[in-house]
Amino acid sequence: MSTFYSLKKFPIEIGHFHRKYSIFFIVYYIQANLDQLKLMGPVILNGILKLLDGYSYSDSDSVARDTKSFAFQAIGLLAQRLPQLFRDKIEMAVRLFDALKLEASSLCLVIQEATTSLATAYKGAQPAVLIELEKLLLHNFNAEQSEVRFCAVRWATSLFDLQHCPSRFICMLGAADPKLDIREMALEGLFPVKDEGRLISQNPDIIYPKLGSMLEYILKQQPKFVDSTEMREQKLLFPSNMYVAMIKFLLKCFELELEQNKDLEKSLEFVSSVETLCLLLEHAMATEGSVELHATASKTLIKIASHLPEMIASHYSQRVIWLKQLLSHIDWDTREAVARLLGIASTALPSATSTALISELVSKTTEMQKLRFEAQHGVLCAIGYVTANSMCRSPAIPEALFQSTLKCLVDVVNSETATLSSVAMQALGHIGLCVPLPPLIHASDSVDILEILHEKLSKSLSGDDTKAIQKIVIALGQICAKETSSLHLNSSLNLIFSLCRSKVEDILFAAGEALSFLWGAVPVTADVILKTNYTSLSMSSKFLMGDMDSSWSTLSSDWKCEANEDCRVMIRDTISKKLFDDLLYSSRKEERCAGAVWLLSLTMYCGHHPTIQQMLPEIQEAFSHLLGEQNELTQELASQGMSVVYELGDASMKQNLVDALVTTLTGSGKRKRTVKLAEDSEVFQEGAIGEGLGGGKLSTYKELCNLANEMGQPDLIYKFMDLANYQVSLNSKRGAAFGFSKIAKQAGDALKPHLRLLIPKLVRFQYDPDKNVQDAMAHIWKSLVADPKRTIDEHLDLIFDDLLIQSGSRLWRSREASCLALADIIQGRKFDQVGKHLRRIWTAAFRAMDDIKETVRIAGDKLCRSVTSLTIRLCDVTLTEISDARQSMDIVLPFLLAEGILSKVDSISKASIGVVMNLVKGAGIAIRPHLSDLVSCMLESLSSLEDQGLNYIELHAANAGIQTEKLENLRISIAKGSPMWDTLDLCINVVDTESLDQLVPHLARLVRSGVGLNTRWESTVNFIIIWQLKATGMFNLIIFSASMLKGLSK
User: Which residues, at least 6 apart from 664, have a Cβ–Cβ distance to it below 8 Å?
Assistant: First the structure.
């Protein structure tokens, strides 16, 4: 009878002891055959429940605790194996959640695991059951115990999908939980896609709920959202962290719906949902909300406005007073977002109201000293956004008000701190995006704005407030976006060019954006900057994310057709001359870095402009030149620039670029243009080649010349420059690798002809001592090679040839890299792959082991260990075919005997003896053709490698009272304990008649002419005696005896 049927006889209603072990066996039975378990499952579950009912929550003795623990484990196991037992009712879920709240803390972990397992049982349950579960989870999330809340969120995320509104609301609640693990799990339930840069629609598996459905559920849980109009004074209806998660999730829902159906903008139902969302966002701006919440809510409003500008403008044109109050918010980002929103709202105001709003904002600047900084900043931001938007509409604001607005901003720039000056400049920049800035009228005279501001801006740009400088320089570019005055344009250019020696990356990139606005045709419009969460060209342009075409498709015609094109042509010519004649080939590294940043900016943001297209060959040459820079930023920008040029170029340009990168990587390219050196030109990075004779630094051209003269060797400067050129070559390879990796996947067939040249170099450079070079080459290797093992196998001979040649290079880094690469590549190879290279590999290993540089010697030792392992395997007849083993032995053994064991380098000699001994152990009969040479070498080595101290003792033995006989016995004993003697002993076992014909003459010669006691007498004679004893009965020894005896008699 089945064990399960015997279970009916289990005495469940018995004492504590029996209960404990009954449940133990039940847990064991649950894991048995599933068919039997299906029959007995209900009986087992009923028994477990009765067992649990036999205890109260207060029972905490060890037997009760253990019994309960096993019972909850059993429920969890049953839920996994028989989910149908639980799926139709929620009683078990209720029971486990209650147990989490009421049972002792020592059982919480077990109950929590059982509860988690139970969740899987309800997948696919009836809708009515799922609705009950929703209520249960929402109720239990309010529990005091963190374990209960954890299980509630776990059930919500695992049982329901992303478009299920009630479960997502529970996740929103969980996002504000005090426990980190609950918060993280809740946020993962809301935002399963971590790559925020991708469009949601690009991932078909991610389906968010409809915006209206999610808002409807939220309003059902908190109806007060629509109760009052005095939202700013209300308390938050949810915790700040929950609000933040809720807003971000609702924004995802909003964006996904619009991505899927652009016509929704006209849908009354959708617009109604958006209005409800705006109401929720306004609630989130309540005073007690966190800074993060306010910033998130205000930016979300701008995000919505970027999709539905008219609807948002109309809605918030009724909320201008509320928006003006928020201009003095304590958070910078919130103030900027509110100012933007006020600008958007102003477009829906009547002209008179809009004019009055600007007048009110301008009037506040006359009392700047009385306002808090936050209020000052908010007002200036609002002036910029509102005035810019008003100038874009028809009719524009009155000329007198426009003049007063500009004068107010100019006064702030001239009189205030760097921070407020930069904000006022930013406001001028926003206005300049829409209209050219007119001269300011003073009495009967008129003066250009930049002429008035030039002195103050020059001072500000030479200051140390990085953020202020960034705002000012970008504003200079934006001011000139619609400018037609050559005076204005040249003034802006001169101010921007004054930053060419800045060492602050952010400032250089800001200047690059400014130059792009001056050049024209940037991939953003005035509306994008004024009515979206625009931060910079690099963040707004999709070029950097590989979607260049779509970023250019957003350009509107008014940005493509520049006013006063002749003036623009002059500006472009000025920028080009500055870059190519002054900066990119400058003797100062900081100017070359600035040139690289600015050229890359122009190429990225204005790359489709006809002038840039015509300049692509020059741009490619400049970036190729900059690949050899010591400055890592310059080098990486150059490599990125090569990738951008590849994207922009036609087929011919792409092929030329691939060829240029290949020649740089393989070392066959030459620079077309050189950098002229000045006295202060930095040739080496400080500390790269040590210090001068007096302890001073050695980096500039002048310092190197002085050192050469001090040493009385003026020609030494040429060696310094040769070393510098080599460093540039190495840097170029690294930079080219980064550039190459970005175009490798796109280049496709264009790279195939170059693989024979590239692969060996890439393999070697991945072992370069410079970690930066390693990383760069590994990067391109991953991009270029889909199947590394197959690629190496296909190009193995070419790789071996390159590595073996470079292992003898005059450059230590090439020798080191080659040895390390060889050590890795030869592992696991077969004879037909390495046979033709085996001797050269051994030669390379021995040469490296005797290198002058320690790191090369270490690499040589590693190669020696690797090739030793390979050789032993190839010569072992149990692991390799006999024919291959013989060929391997024919290559390696003569080499080791002639050049290894007899080497004057101790490490090489010892390594060779160890290899030979291991070869003899595994080679078996494959060693026979080499026995004569092997035995002779071992016997001679017993003397030549003997400790020289023994000879010294022998000379002074009489004086020291040491008996000669004892000394000789000691020497013989040492010899017999050496690896050479062990090898000789192994050789005796494989001697045959044919090998004896060659061996006996060598032994006779050694007996007659051997040098050293061990070789001439004892060792050779002992070998002969042992061999004769072992060979008796195996060979006819008479034919060999005469020559042996003749040698011994002498």
Answer: 624, 627, 732, 733, 736
- Find tokens 């810019």 and name the residue: 388
pLDDT digits (tens, 9 = 90+) for 947-988: 554 554 555 455 555 555 555 555 555 555 566 666 777 777
* Direct distance between the N- and C-terminal alpha carbons of the chain, in angstroms, rounded to an integer: 94
Q: How far apart are the C-alpha atoms of 1015 and 1002, rounded to whole Å? A: 12
Vertex 854: Cα angle to 851 and 858 (nearest 5): 90
Q: 3-state secondary structure string, 468-532?
A: HHHHHHHHHHHHCCCCCCHHHHHHHHHHHHCCCCCCCHHHHHHHHHHHHHHHCCCCCCHHHHHHC
Question: Nearest to residue 435, comparing CAs of 526, 514, 344?
Answer: 526
φ/ψ of 1035, rounded to 5, equals -130, 160
**What are 316-321's contacts with CB under 8 Å, separation 24+?**
316/341, 316/342, 316/344, 316/345, 316/348, 317/345, 317/346, 317/348, 317/349, 319/282, 319/345, 320/345, 320/349, 320/357
Q: Tokens in use for 339?
A: 């100012």
| The 3-state secondary structure of 591-655, one letter per residue | HHHHHHHHHHHHHHHCCCCHHHHHHHHHHHHHHHHHCCCCCHHHHHHHHHHHHHHHHHCCHHHHH
How far is residue 363's CA from residue 408's CA, in Å, rounded to a whole number?
9
Alpha helix (H) residue ranges in 103-145: 108-121, 127-141
Please compute, for residue 280, the number of CA atoms within 13 A of its CA located in the half-sphere on the CB side.
30
Take residue 840 and report the two structure tokens written for it.
Answer: 């050269």
Give the model confidence (pLDDT) of 178-233 as tens digits: 999 999 999 999 998 764 444 455 566 678 999 999 999 999 998 887 766 565 45
* Residue 159 Cα to chain centre, angstroms: 34
Cα angle 700-703-705, degrees, rounded to a multiple of 5: 110
Going along the chain from its start, the domains and CATH numbers come out as 1-85 (no CATH), 291-561 (1.25.10), 901-1049 (no CATH)
DSSP secondary structure string for all residues of 363-428? HHGGGGGGS-HHHHHHHHHHHHHHHHHHHTSSS---HHHHHHHHHHHHHHHHHS-HHHHHHHHHHH
β partners of residue 447: 440
Among 807, 809, 832, smallest CA distance to 821 is for 807
Q: What is the DSSP letter of 1032?
A: B
How far is Cα 728 from Cα 724, in angstroms, rounded to an integer?
Answer: 6
Q: DSSP character for 234?
A: S
How far is it, in rounded angstroms, from Cα 46 to Cα 998? 90
| CB within 8 Å of 590: residues ≥ 6 apart | 500, 501, 502, 503
- Listed in sequence order, the DSSP H helices in 667-699 are none
